[in-house]
Design brief:
Blueprint (H helix, E strand, L loop, with lengths): L9 H14 L3 H22 L1
GO biological process, one term: regulation of DNA-templated transcription
Pfam families: RHH_1
Protein name: Ribbon-helix-helix protein CopG domain-containing protein
C-alpha cells in the first residue's frame, strides 16, 4: 500500500480517532472505508445522471 498524507483540523482528528477506537480499527482503516464509500456514491451519482 502507498502512503498518503493530508491535513485535518484538530477537532476532526479527535473525532476520527474516537470513532476508530470505538470500532476497534485503525485511523487509516476508517479513512480508507470512508473514501471507498464516497467514491462509490459519486460513481453511482454519475451513472444515474
Amino acid at each position: 500500500m502507498r502512503v498518503v498524507t493530508f491535513k485535518v483540523d484538530e477537532d476532526f482528528l479527535e473525532k476520527l480517532d474516537s470513532f476508530a477506537r470505538l470500532k476497534g480499527v485503525t485511523r487509516s482503516e476508517v479513512i480508507r472505508k470512508a473514501l471507498e464509500l464516497y467514491l462509490r456514491l459519486e460513481d453511482w451519482r454519475e451513472q444515474d445522471s
